[in-house]
Amino acid sequence: MADHLKVLSAFQFAPKSLSILREAAGTDVECIPNNEELAARLYEAEVLCAYSLPGNWRELAPHLRWLQVAGAGVDNLRASGILHTDGRVLVTTAVGVNASVIGEYVFGSILMFNRNWSEMVRLQDRHVWPLSANWYRLGGRELTAQTLGIVGLGSIGRRVAQLGRAFGMRVLATRRSAKLADTDEAVDQLFPQADLLLMLRQCDYVVLAVPLTAETDGLIGEAELRVMPSHSYLVNVARGRVIQQKALIRALREGWIRGAGLDVVEDEPLASESPL
User: What is the pLDDT of residue 144?
Assistant: First the structure.
């Protein structure tokens, strides 16, 4: 990379990582986490690392040649038009970079639900120490021999599958490109997306790990929630709009499923008056 290229980052890298980046780029890499300062400096940028772009990026960053997205998804960039610049601006993602931490979130959520740890913490705050797990509904299921369904067998889905197997779970998954009778060594059974309902009805736990596209917008609605077992738990680490939120609220209120762990919702941050 030529020395004259101007590289800016909205993401604050650790000093060690920044040193590696500067050596690899052969030029300086400036980290500007302040949004107002970054917007004022975009005119200089030829290479930019960021989560998103303002709608008027063409005026703010006329010299931009490469956008490195600091995550896996690009759905928040569609409205900006940068994905349709006929190659004038290269857009790359960091697919897989968050697989480990999101995998930990998924099982943290599942274990917290399974053992009712949120209630344990509330009891601890009150200095209440139950003598039996049956008190305050603290007893839970073991994960061994339970069925985990993963909607979207990408890098995150594969990490979740790996952790599920470590817990002794039976692991199922859908993949958009899968065909009938396809297999994958990461899971016990692979389903085409068209067989989503067939998979969901077998699952004790379901994890959503698909990108937000026209096909996955509203993917999980009433039909999907109703076929899931009433004891099942749904975890969404994809995008909020992958679930039809009104249907989910009804499912939780009426007991179609037992619970949900939501890393994302339709409108963020979640409104204080939301039933969720």
Answer: 97
Which pLDDT band, with edges at 50, 70 and 90, does 73 fall under?
Answer: confident
Please state which of the four CATH numbers 3.30.360.10, 3.40.50.920, 3.40.50.720, 3.40.50.300 is assigned to the domain occupying 99-262.
Answer: 3.40.50.720
- Residues forming CATH 3.40.50.720 domain(s) in the chain: 7-92, 99-262
On whether the CB atoms of residues 248 and 220 are closer than 8 A, the answer is yes
238: confidence class by pLDDT, cuts 50, 70, 90: very high
Per the CB < 8 A criterion, the answer to whether 67 and 43 are in contact is no
Selected from 3.40.50.10190, 1.10.10.10, 3.40.50.720, 3.40.50.11810, the CATH number assigned to the domain covering 7-92 reads 3.40.50.720
How does residue 232 score in pLDDT terms, banded at 50, 70 and 90? very high
pLDDT at 1 over 50: no
Per the CB < 8 A criterion, the answer to whether 220 and 249 are in contact is: no
Binned at pLDDT 50, 70 and 90, residue 170 comes out as very high
